[in-house]
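Long-time lurker. I teach an intro course on protein structure, and each term I like to show students one example going from raw sequence to a predicted 3D structure in token notation. This year I'd like something fresh instead of my usual example. Would anyone be willing to generate the tokens for the chain below so I can use it in lecture? Attribution to the forum is fine with me.
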Amino acid sequence: MRSRYDEELKNLHGALIDMGAMIESAISGAITALENRDIQKAKDIIAYDEDIDAQERLIEEMCMKLLLRQQPVARDLRKISTAFKLITDMERIGDHAADISELAIMLRDLPQMNSNSLREMAVQTSSMLISSVEAYVEQDEEKARAVIRQDDVVDDLFVTVKSEMIEAIRQNSDFSEAAADLLMAAKYFERIGDHATNIAEWTVYAFTGRHED
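-- Reply from a regular --
Happy to contribute to a lecture. Here you go:
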């Protein structure tokens, strides 16, 4: 009976890793669409969000089967209930990648502006997402805590992007609309970082029984 549980849990972990990879791809595509004003790429990422939602539903079903068939106790129960929490945050990250892609479409006729700090936000949040999911699967509490600390980097980058956009508007008012859209994109990346942090915090809970705010 335990061997069957372990096999189903392994499948659940694989599905979570797959969902993480899907969202990482969406984040990467969103920042590329934003920087290159690539309308087709943006539309592809928006449509891809439906695949991410489908993966979330698949994982929900897997969790329910584990709960109903295997009747786990104690730490096993925490791990499965935590998976429900994880996919909620992961789904929201996918939504934000689609939101950023929608901004890329809105920017298509506006003056070209790019921000290295904004791209770095995309890099950092992708790293946080993947590391937080890996921490859960690998039962690595320290990796989860490192993700929580990494959120400060993303918050600092948001402040930098905000300053850059204000300065761009100050120098040329023609940039005002584009700057506002890029600042909104930065806000979405900040939220992605927050969701990745949530995943890491729930991962710590799965192994300690304590949820840290």
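Some talking points for your students: The mean pLDDT is 93. The helical segments are 2-36, 39-70, 74-106, 116-138, 141-171, 176-208.
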